[in-house]
Design brief:
alpha+beta; Jelly Rolls; Rossmann fold; 2 domains; six-stranded antiparallel sheet; about 30% strand; globular
């Protein structure tokens, strides 16, 4: 049973004169069957991972959404593929997703562009014009899953200077290489990524094996470590793993990464994924920030898996390929996406 609320929506004449005609708007609950949730979303409609969100079709009018955010956050909103950014403030607020739309079919898509560490968002409701109706959009049949670190999250990919750190404004997960590739493949997308995290050990010096990506992967909300992910709910055709850059980091202080430790952790993680997704094709990848010696390790390691291939993302070729803190810029993300798509179609 759907609960739909009618709310008064003042017209311009009402605002000017203090009376006269009032139009109505309809408040739609987050449980509406026409809303399709993307990425990982909890049963009470919270999401945090990059790329999580929702999409829905609407027949006309303006669309707004009530969100609750625990921190400042940002989402990419696409109205009929026209892109804009909406910055969410902490607390519960209403945000306009689209200006009034003419009668017809229109798509509204919301994509969390900031990574999970930046905060969690909850969809409370949508509001549409009283004359409008929602409808379900057709979803791509293929599914792509990307597991990575800051590179996969789009860390600082819109930064103007190398010295810029990762911010709500300059991190654009929608233009990360994984997200671009998914669109080019016409595939649904699920990203689990976290800056500074590794497969065997993290970049940090203390407790560097606490909260590694194979652990965080288990949760719908990784910060809160709430709600275990149900693998059967999303069965990917392709799974990309790009983890190792942070495992290699701080070697002068922590010691060089041990090949045996790294590959043992890799095997444990991959074997678990294969158990859940025996038909998926795997892409073991590394780069573009630090490739060696993991690039050679993965070539050797991949020989144990008939459904796996190796993709080494090329190192930076020019300064404009670098974003904040020497991470890929959007330009580099596009080149990486192109390499990834070609690799998938070839393999």
């Amino acid at each position: 049973m759907k609960t739909i609320k009618k709310i008064l929506k003042p017209t311009l004449l009402t605002l000017l004169c203090g009376y006269s005609a009032l139009s109505f708007a309809t408040e739609i609950p987050p449980t509406d069957d026409n809303i399709f949730y993307t990425g990982r979303v909890t049963t009470d409609h919270r999401f945090a991972w990059t790329g999580s969100g929702f999409n829905v079709g609407v027949t006309q009018g303006a669309v707004s959404a009530s969100f609750t955010a625990n921190k400042q956050n940002a989402v990419t909103v696409l109205v009929n593929s026209v892109e804009s950014v909406v910055y969410l403030q902490p607390g519960t607020h209403s945000y306009q997703l689209s200006a009034p739309l003419l009668s017809g079919e229109h798509s509204i898509k919301v994509f969390k562009r900031s990574e999970a560490a930046k905060g969690t968002i909850k969809l409370n409701s949508l509001t549409i014009d009283d004359e409008a109706k929602l409808y379900a959009l057709v979803q791509p049949k293929n599914k792509f899953m990307a597991i990575g670190d800051s590179i996969t999250c789009g860390y600082g990919n819109e930064a103007k200077q190398l010295s810029e750190g990762n911010t709500i404004a300059n991190q654009n997960g929608y233009m990360s290489y994984a997200a671009i590739a998914a669109r080019e493949l016409d595939a649904q997308l699920m990203i689990t990524c976290w800056s500074g995290r590794g497969l065997y050990r993290n970049r940090q010096l203390k407790n560097d094996q606490v909260g590694i990506m194979p652990e965080l992967f288990n949760y719908v909300l990784p910060v809160e470590q709430e709600e275990y992910w149900q693998p059967a709910s999303y069965v990917p055709n392709w799974i990309l793993i790009n983890l190792g850059t942070n495992d290699l980091a701080q070697a002068d202080k922590k010691g060089a990464l041990n090949k045996g430790d790294y590959l043992a952790a890799y095997k444990t993680f991959v074997d678990k994924l294969i158990l859940n997704y025996p038909q998926a094709k795997f892409i073991f990848s590394i780069g573009p920030m630090k490739n060696a010696p993991i690039n050679t390790w993965l070539t050797e390691f991949s020989e144990n898996y008939k459904q796996a291939s190796v993709l080494e993302f090329a190192p930076f070729a020019s300064e404009d390929e670098k974003g904040g803190h020497f991470h890929p810029s959007v330009l580099k993300d596009k080149k990486m996406a192109d390499a990834l798509v070609k690799h998938i179609l070839k393999n």
